[in-house]
Design brief:
Length: 530
């Protein structure tokens, strides 16, 4: 087995809709050639809006349909994928050169060339392409092909984590180049070099994949992979228990119900997936620094880990997990309601008879939205509101669809999820840099702190690891004094699967998880247990 076949990246965030009856039973024979025992059905909560990397799908290397120049091993270190080796870096960190692997074909049988790589990156960087992650490649000045097998990137400035950005999936110019990247058929009928190809997508119901006959990494033992879209956690657990699913993403309370099931195995993946409350700066209550600081001190993070996550997570004192090597030491903060009260008193937020504080006639009150159907976020939101009330802040919790929430994100708080693996720049820039305020789900709080912006820019450009470490240390300490978000917990991702395959492992995962995350991140490597 090649090293490449051990490195499928973590999964894309998948978006909405339930289905309770549309998948074939696990292991059943199928019309597309998958015999009994060669088919796997996985239950996930949401589905993607698009399957095109040109619009952001799989940007962290998280796809079964595509490959990047590089990919990640199980331990998250980089290794070659479509490239033959890690890049050759010259010109003081401004030039990256890759040589492509020979003989790679797309799933339509056409060969991969350097021109496909150039097309992919140039299209993503084109301002007419609706890719909200474009800022992640802002350092790229030019990308060009040298013959059919060599790609050269030239950067505006040294960018320390650039190699990790080249896990971006590569698309075929001969297909995607003939379409509008925003509206073309490629978004739902992709062609890639990965181990699987999409054969059917029934929106809100399931995505069905079969093994790619042209896959350069070998023939998977799992011939058919179905991702069943089941938005309700309880229904997903019920279908897994009945045998209708081979595996599922589950919250901690439901995963725990399978502990005594000898035919099921639970997998736990640590993650950078942080649950936060966004505090929009334009809201007269959440935009007040005293309110933000008081909420940071009022929240009982450990209780959330113990009671909501059943211990499957860690308290979050900032955007980076406490066990991350970039985490700023001594920024852990205990719950301190007395200190929260003193901060509010000093800022003129005084208690009224009903226990809710007010300033200049305005009550300390705001609305907190969470997405409907997400029990873990609901529980976080309710616990947060309970903690806030003890400090005299009235948080009104409401559930809604994302279609309702999105237009309100600039003025109302949201129980959100963020987190990227690979380098601190990847998650922190999009969450905190002022240039991205209000850019979709980037910087949802409209956070604007010049010191944090400077630290982000230093961390992005500096080549010296110590200078980068100092910048991110400064950033995390600035967030304690001027929080734009209340960080609550870093959650572990739990997956329960029928115990009939071997070779299953987990990676440290980003916020996005579902399709290729958890044990099925390397489904093309699975072997029958017997």
């Amino acid at each position: 087995m090649t090293t490449r076949r051990r490195i499928r990246g973590a999964a894309a965030v998948l978006a909405t809709a339930a289905a309770v009856s549309a998948c074939s039973a696990p292991g059943s024979g199928t019309a597309d050639g998958a015999a009994a025992g060669e088919s796997v059905v996985i239950g996930v909560s949401t589905e993607p809006d698009t399957l095109s990397p040109l619009l952001g799908y799989g940007k962290d290397g998280n796809s079964k349909l595509f490959d990047g120049l590089l990919a990640r091993r199980a331990d998250m270190t980089l290794e070659p994928a479509l490239a033959t080796a890690l890049p050759r870096i010259t010109d003081g960190g401004r030039t990256y050169t890759y040589t492509l692997r020979e003989g790679v074909k797309f799933s339509d049988g056409k060969p991969l060339t350097a021109r496909d790589v150039v097309f992919t990156y140039r299209t993503v960087l084109d301002e007419d392409t609706n890719n909200t992650a474009r800022s992640e490649l802002a350092a790229v000045k030019d990308v060009r092909a040298v013959g059919d097998d060599t790609v050269v990137f030239t950067l505006h400035h040294p960018y320390a984590p650039f190699a990790a950005r080249t896990v971006l999936p590569i698309v075929p110019e001969h297909v995607a180049g003939e379409q509008d990247p925003n509206t073309g058929a490629f978004n739902t009928k992709p062609v890639g070099t990965g181990p699987y190809v999409l054969v059917d997508w029934r929106k809100g119901e399931k995505l069905t994949f079969k093994a790619n006959p042209y896959y350069w990494g070998g023939t998977p033992k799992v011939k058919k992979l179905t991702m069943a879209i089941v938005s309700d956690d309880d229904v997903r657990a019920t279908r897994l228990r009945s045998g209708d699913l081979d595996g599922a993403v589950l919250p901690p309370n439901l995963a725990a119900t399978f502990k005594s099931d000898d035919d099921k195995k639970t997998y736990r993946a640590t993650s950078y997936d942080v649950r936060v409350v966004t505090l929009p700066s334009g809201n007269p209550v959440t935009g007040d620094t005293a309110i933000r600081r008081a909420l940071d001190l009022a929240v009982d993070r450990q209780a959330m880990v113990d009671k909501i996550l059943d211990g499957a997570g860690r308290p979050a004192y900032g955007p980076l997990p406490v066990d991350d090597p970039w985490f700023a030491e001594d920024t852990e903060r205990p719950r301190d309601l007395a200190a929260a009260g003193r901060i509010l008193d000093a800022a003129g937020w005084t208690k009224r008879g009903d226990g809710i504080r007010a300033k200049d006639g305005r009550p300390a009150r705001f609305t907190l939205y969470y997405p409907s159907g997400d029990k873990v976020r609901q529980d976080h939101a309710l616990a947060y509101a309970s903690d806030a009330k003890k400090a005299g802040i009235d948080v009104r919790v409401e559930s809604a669809t994302w279609e309702v929430i999105e237009p309100r994100m600039h003025r109302d708080a949201v129980l959100a999820g963020f987190g990227s693996t690979g380098d601190p720049d990847f998650g922190l820039w999009t969450m905190l840099h002022s240039s991205l305020a209000g850019d979709g789900f980037n910087n949802m709080a409209h956070y604007d702190n010049p010191a944090v912006d400077r630290a982000l820019e230093t961390g992005r450009r500096a080549q010296d690891p110590k200078a980068r470490e100092a910048a991110y240390d400064t950033l995390q300490r600035a967030l304690v004094k001027d929080p734009g978000y209340t960080f609550l917990t870093h959650i572990d991702h739990l997956y329960v699967l029928a115990d009939r395959w071997k070779g299953l492992t987990t990676q440290t995962e980003p916020h996005e998880h579902g399709f290729a995350a958890g044990p099925w991140w390397n489904v093309e490597d699975w072997q029958p247990a017997a």
